[in-house]
């Protein structure tokens, strides 16, 4: 493809896309997918046309798994699975595998819209206790360890590490007894920073924030947790089936796994790993939050400063008229998809891994100008 | 992209791909996906990077739905859903929505490996009766209406219209009382021929045979069946959630839906609809089956002639040595992925919609030569 100004499919037609998910992907990954889309070298067909049981795809799947394993140093005590159904299906699969049909209690910390959905599904499956719920402050913070108490005999402790709608993020995992498996919805910050996976029983992420296109969900699960599922659980919902079948118990979403593997390799080879990615992500977030803080009579951040998300910057403007103009003028400068979720209002700038530093700089610069002209 | 002999990603490097699924896709669709992959015209980003709630993607999803509705003339009495989890999750969702928690009985006709898996999952959910099982003849046929009896009060009658592993296909839907919803796994023949959708309660297909890439499943469901689900069913498994949410109750697999929409448009605009597609598919199947019948001392078809699949042609050779040579020599002539499933053995040539007539001609010609040289 040649990049010409008149070709609407060219790279020159791309904008800075602050969408909350599906979200921006690395351009180099998109280019590789594009080049190989019609015919994967050596395969004689598109990746989409190849049997998932053949060597070409199984190598791709194992390559994606190994990239994730090596980024986090994940041991063989864990299975790394590629599933369908998004976080929504995980909301049910986790309690269905761990507490359906037994008398254990799972505990939940709720710090935003995704945690709220997760606990709603979990209550259908067994005994659930909410041990912290930030709804009374409209989900503007995450708790400190002293704010909640985890039972030593809990089936698991569940939390969402980054709430995309409210823009709050746990800087550290919650405090949790070693007897209790910690379960984390990391849909919007897995792959954005280093983590000690050994702290977790299950940590999972739908791909469409930092890991690739919608349609595949990465589930990292400690193998001892595979044996708790009731026998009559639907086969697709049973983690053990997917672990035993090497994520090919049924046909996996092959294109999405292929793309995810390329994103993981980009993170390793082009970015230099998770610590390097975290440094860039912190720099991007700092640029935007500094403008909010320097113009605090104009921009109102939603999250309490020590709970701010590095992934989703949420803030409001003095009134709806200014909000509308902000979105419109930003779009005219190729800063797209900045409108916040209706439940919080205002602006949400999602600055996941694939948003380049230049995008955050352009947004910060626009915000400064807009405040000085309208403040 | 320029098609040069030295470019391994060029169209000239493509082979005839007889994979059973994921399977061949129309080249014109792959080319469109490729051209628009980096930047969807007017969107400033790849389709993969766009919010599913935005106008661009919702138009694409509705376009895909409308193409399927118009190909089959589907009325508003039916919802057309795009789900994740493949046929495997449908095996559970169907009984979970229709018989979990009630005392009704669902009946199953089992004519191959997929029906067998489906009834296995269904038995976890409630009362199930197998009213026909072809396993004793190694699934080489489908029953005639006189071979089974459907109860008037059955919750539903389930069958798989085309068994990909054994290569048997129902020419007509089974006989079923009007009081009983007919449920069909049409994963491997939906979109390959005209059907009267009004005969069905639910008819569904994973995309990776005739409809697009793996990762999306089309479910066509009569709306009155949306109200039977128990209240505590996992949200993702509840058809009503997806119908009420316009297939966006959670994030859909946006790339796969995009590709599926393009395949449906190809079927309409390039092929001329389902009757035209059926005519081509019958012509392709006839070419291959005629070689089998003309060389019946050499090639042994698996399916009884009146139950032969138009999608998957299954046959064996006189011995394993010849079978191995057949696969190898075919591959050397760019006829790929012909090895049959281990449970049936022999050869399986999958000739779904996107396999061009020329591919079936090339296979038939190779088979003639091979038989005359080795017979």
TrEMBL record, chains A, B:
InterPro entries: Aminotrans_V_dom, Aminotrans_V_PyrdxlP_BS, Pser_aminoTfrase, PyrdxlP-dep_Trfase, PyrdxlP-dep_Trfase_major, PyrdxlP-dep_Trfase_small. Binds 1 pyridoxal phosphate per subunit. Pathway: Cofactor biosynthesis; pyridoxine 5'-phosphate biosynthesis; pyridoxine 5'-phosphate from D-erythrose 4-phosphate: step 3/5; Amino-acid biosynthesis; L-serine biosynthesis; L-serine from 3-phospho-D-glycerate: step 2/3. It catalyses: 4-(phosphooxy)-L-threonine + 2-oxoglutarate = (R)-3-hydroxy-2-oxo-4-phosphooxybutanoate + L-glutamate; O-phospho-L-serine + 2-oxoglutarate = 3-phosphooxypyruvate + L-glutamate. Keywords: Amino-acid biosynthesis, Aminotransferase, Cytoplasm, Pyridoxal phosphate, Pyridoxine biosynthesis, Serine biosynthesis, Transferase. Its EC number is 2.6.1.52. Residues 15-363 form the Aminotransferase class V domain. It is an enzyme of class 2 (transferase). The modification N6-(pyridoxal phosphate)lysine is found at residue 209. Its main location: cytoplasm. It holds the Pfam family Aminotran_5. One of its GO terms (molecular function) is O-phospho-L-serine:2-oxoglutarate aminotransferase activity. GO terms for biological process: L-serine biosynthetic process; pyridoxine biosynthetic process. One of its GO terms (cellular component) is cytoplasm. Its cofactor is pyridoxal 5'-phosphate. L-glutamate binds at residue 53. Belongs to the class-V pyridoxal-phosphate-dependent aminotransferase family. SerC subfamily. Homodimer. PANTHER family: PHOSPHOSERINE AMINOTRANSFERASE. Catalyzes the reversible conversion of 3-phosphohydroxypyruvate to phosphoserine and of 3-hydroxy-2-oxo-4-phosphonooxybutanoate to phosphohydroxythreonine. This is Phosphoserine aminotransferase. The gene is serC.
């Amino acid at each position: 493809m040649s990049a010409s100004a008149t070709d609407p499919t060219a790279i020159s037609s791309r904008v800075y896309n602050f969408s909350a998910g599906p979200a921006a992907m690395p351009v180099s990954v998109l280019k590789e997918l594009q080049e190989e889309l019609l015919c994967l070298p050596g395969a004689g067909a598109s990746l989409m046309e190849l049997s998932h049981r053949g060597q070409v795809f199984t190598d791709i799947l194992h390559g994606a798994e190994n990239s994730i394993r090596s980024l986090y140093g994940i041991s063989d005590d864990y299975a790394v699975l590629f599933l369908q159904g998004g976080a929504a299906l995980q909301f049910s699969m986790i309690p269905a595998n761990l507490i359906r049909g037994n008398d254990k209690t799972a505990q939940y910390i709720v710090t935003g819209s995704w945690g709220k959905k997760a606990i709603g599904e979990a209550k259908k499956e067994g005994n659930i206790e909410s041990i912290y719920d930030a709804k009374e402050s409209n989900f503007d913070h995450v708790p400190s360890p002293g704010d909640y108490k985890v039972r030593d005999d809990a089936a698991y402790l569940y939390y969402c590490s980054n709430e995309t709608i409210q823009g709050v993020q746990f800087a550290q995992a919650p405090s949790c007894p070693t007897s209790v498996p910690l379960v984390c919805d990391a849909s919007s910050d897995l792959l954005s920073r280093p983590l000690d996976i050994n702290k977790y029983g299950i940590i999972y992420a739908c791909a469409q924030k930092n890991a690739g296109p919608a349609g595949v969900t990465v589930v990292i699960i400690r193998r001892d947790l595979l044996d708790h599922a009731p026998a009559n659980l639907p086969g697709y919902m049973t983690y053990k089936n997917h672990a035993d079948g090497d994520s090919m118990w049924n046909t996996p979403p092959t294109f999405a796994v292929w793309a995810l593997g390329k994103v993981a390799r980009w993170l390793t080879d082009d970015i230099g790993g998770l610590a390097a990615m975290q440094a860039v992500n912190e720099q991007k977030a700092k640029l935007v939050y500094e403008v909010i803080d320097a113009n605090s009579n104009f921009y109102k951040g939603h999250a309490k400063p020590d709970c701010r998300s590095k992934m989703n910057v949420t803030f409001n403007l003095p009134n709806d008229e200014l909000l509308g103009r902000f979105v419109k003028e930003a779009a005219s400068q190729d800063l797209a998809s900045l409108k916040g979720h209706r439940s919080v209002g205002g602006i949400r700038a999602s600055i996941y891994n694939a948003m380049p530093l230049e995008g955050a700089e352009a947004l910060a610069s626009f915000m400064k100008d807009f405040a000085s002209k309208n403040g």
